[in-house]
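Hi, here's the filled form for the chain we discussed.

Project: internal
Contact: R.S.
Residues: 291
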Amino acid sequence: MLDLQLKLLQPVEQVQNILEQDWQKPYSIPVQNQYTLQEGSMPDLPAHLWQPIKYDEAEVLSQTPEGWLHLKCQQSHMSIHFHRQQIWCSGTGGALRLCLQFGIMEMLRLQGWMPIHASALNVNGAATVLLGPSGTGKTTTLLQAARSGVVSLAEDWSWIGPELVFYPWDSGLHLLPDTTERFADVLPEARTWVDRGSRKKWRFEVQDLPWFAPEPCPLGHFWLLKRSPKTALGPLSKLDQVKALWEATGMPLTRAGTVMAQQGINRLMGVPGQTLHLGFDVDFQRLLNGN
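And the returned structure, exactly as it came back:
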């Protein structure tokens, strides 16, 4: 998982399956840190110190005494001691998956990585990252780009390394039925009907999408999406860019993670940004040619 390695001290089938499904990617990056992971019960912690993590789909709580991160969701938990590089966890199903997700994200933040909830296009060999809250059109922008022959890198979330290289992390594309119908000309027949939060969506595997090629790319641009009657690229203020980046990269859980995230945002502010004013239809070839 990027430059972090987890060594299971005992076979934990649930954990092993989650790590393989969510965190195993074909990126060749030298390992910087190795943590050991084993099953273990949650320590007795003061109930009043649990803090909710901002997450819409389930209640996930954290505590961060010095050098530690404790996470719990329903009957699952994860405890990380950063200095000893040790992890204990227990639980099952989606709750355990969420504990592992938030815990590993914080571990990677401490190594200089930035998680980012955004879509991205490959424009001239570099990643153009599309920022904006849910509902602003990041996914439909990818689909419109596909109609113009522009390759997509990511639809939902990815990682940005300390050297400003963009690493896509999606394994599938999830679309509502009306979006699927609107863009049927660029979508394959192979699809699966799945639960996605509170709604059902069609899932398309990345390998079935000929215009989707997730591979590491240097960061090229950030585009902040805004709805508009007419499609055009315009300037992006530094204030709007920094706000959009904090929203896209999420809030760290520890003090040390916050320091690393601030340093990461400062690096990302050196990447050029523009506002993409989105009309109903976008001709990407004309847009990229400045027309």
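Let me know if anything looks off before we file it.
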